[in-house]
Every structure is written in structure tokens, then in C-alpha cells.
Amino acid sequence: MPLRLIFMGTPDFSVPTLLELVAHGHEIAAVYTRAPKPGGRRGLQLQPTPVEEAARKLGVPVLTPKTLKTPEALEEFRAFDADAAVVVAYGMILPQAILDAPKLGCYNLHASLLPRWRGAAPINRAIMAGDAESGVMVMKMDVGLDTGDVAMAERLTITDNMTALDLHDRLSRLGADLMVRAMAALARGGLQLKQQSEDGVTYAAKIDKAEARIDWTRPAREVLRHIHGLSPFPGAWAELENARVKILRCELAKGTGAPGEVLDDHLTIACGEGAIRLIELQREGKARMQAADFLRGVPLKTGAKFT
Hints:
- 26% of the residues lie in helices and 26% in strands.
- The chain has helices spanning 15-23, 50-58, 71-79, 96-100, 122-128, 164-187, 220-229, 291-297; strands at 4-9, 27-32, 37-39, 45-47, 62-63, 84-88, 106-110, 118-119, 133-140, 150-157, 203-204, 236-240, 243-253, 268-270, 275-283, 289-290.
- The strands form four sheets. The protein has a seven-stranded mixed β-sheet with strand order 5-2-1-6-7-9-10. Strands 12, 13, 14, 15 and 16 form a five-stranded antiparallel β-sheet that branches. It has a two-stranded antiparallel ribbon with strand order 3-4.
- The chain is elongated and about 65 Å long.
- The model has no long low-confidence stretch (mean pLDDT 96).
């Protein structure tokens, strides 16, 4: 039995879930997303969110309220008479009155294995912390920060060659399938909820640009995970010949030397323990490029140093 749903989401990560819910016959009464922001070449043109663009193509009503805490916002939300709300990276806190409005509740897709990595940046933090796995979970929302009862989960191995973008894209697709299955179970009255454990709670704080500078004194695998956890945005960086260079992809390599030292002509860089080989870089003000292309423009001798 299809459900009448309100969908709430904003970035690219949210779009596959919206599309899959529609493809499986659920009625999307309305889409809530963040308001368009200035963008384009000159920063003057308002850019709708990826979710708004997808919703417009589907012919679904789109709302971009600045707050959900007013009586007017609550009345408008209730007027859609939804069975449930599906929330995927919406970016706005839902007050209790909104959470209580749909008949069957509000359900969030979160990109971590709760209670680990509650909060804003679970994908980045999981990679940066060296976690062996990540995943997606569907939970029934409450007023806490990702503290609601969990319904369903899917797990995914994190490999050393995964960047935050790689993991983001895989979890986005995995999460879309998971939410469709959760809504099917909800429709037939078979969605089971389990309270989150309070053991192992961690918080995925928003990424601060001050974290992005690479510390070459750390072991190679920690350096690699730091780089990949921040790729492509904001991008981990180091200085080379007084210019900032973002490093977007790398791999573990053999070699020893002073931290940050270039060990060969293949961009193998020494770390506090071991070394990494740079695969993809971006010079300040330039496009991202492969290591071979970088070296054609910036020939480096063995012994040069990233700082």
C-alpha cells in the first residue's frame, strides 16, 4: 500500500531516496528543502538545491521555509495530511509539533552506524577516524540529535582507497534502497523499532577548515585517511614552494624520510612512519589533476618538501 509522504532534504545525497520513493509508488505530497542560495559564475544567480531541482522535474510542490517553528509553518505542514515524513540531510531542526504531525511519524536516513557519529559530518569523520565500516540507518525521529529509535540498517566496508565522495555516493544509493524498504514495512504495519544504545556514542562535528592542513609527522595510514576524509571538500592541503596544494587522492607506499619529503619522481612523500604516493592534486587556483600532469607543470626533485 503506497503512503502519502512529505519529503524533506537538500543536497545531492538526498535525491536518490526521493526518486526511489516515487518509483515505488509512494505519493509525495510536498517536498521541503532549503531556500536557493546565490551562485553561478558571478555569485548573483539564485541556485536551487539538488532536491528542489529533482522535485520540480517530478511536478511536486516545493516549500523552502526559513523556519518550522511558527504556527503558520505547522498549519501548512499539517494541511498536507501526510502518513509520514521522510527526512534525508534536510539541514533544519524539526520541532516536536512537526514531528508529531504525520500519522505514522517522521523517519530520517542517517549516514552512519548509530550511535557512532551522530551529527553533521558522519561520512568525513568515519574515514578520518580510520573506521573499518560505515553504513546507513533509518530511525524514527525525536527532538534529540540523531537519538531516535532505529528501524533498519545496512553496513558498508570502508577501504583505504575510498574518499569522502566515494563513500557519500555509495551510501546515498544504499540509503535510498533502505528507506524504500522501511516505508514498505511501515505501510504494512511491520516496521520494528529498537532503542539506540548509549554505549559507543560519538559526535561527528562539522568540518572546520582549520583541520585541513596535513600533518606529515603522523603515520602514513593516518595521513591517507585524513586526506581521503576531506576529499573533495574542503580538501586537505600542504604548502609546496610557498604555494598551497590540495591533495585529493593518494595510496600507501614504501619509503622513509623526513616528514613531507619527496622521495622519488612519482610523488612518494614520507610521513612520520611510512609513506604515501600522491595520485590526484589541485594547485591553488587550478583544476584538479593527476600526479603525472602535476609534475609536468611543477617538476620536483627528490628532497623537495611539502610542509
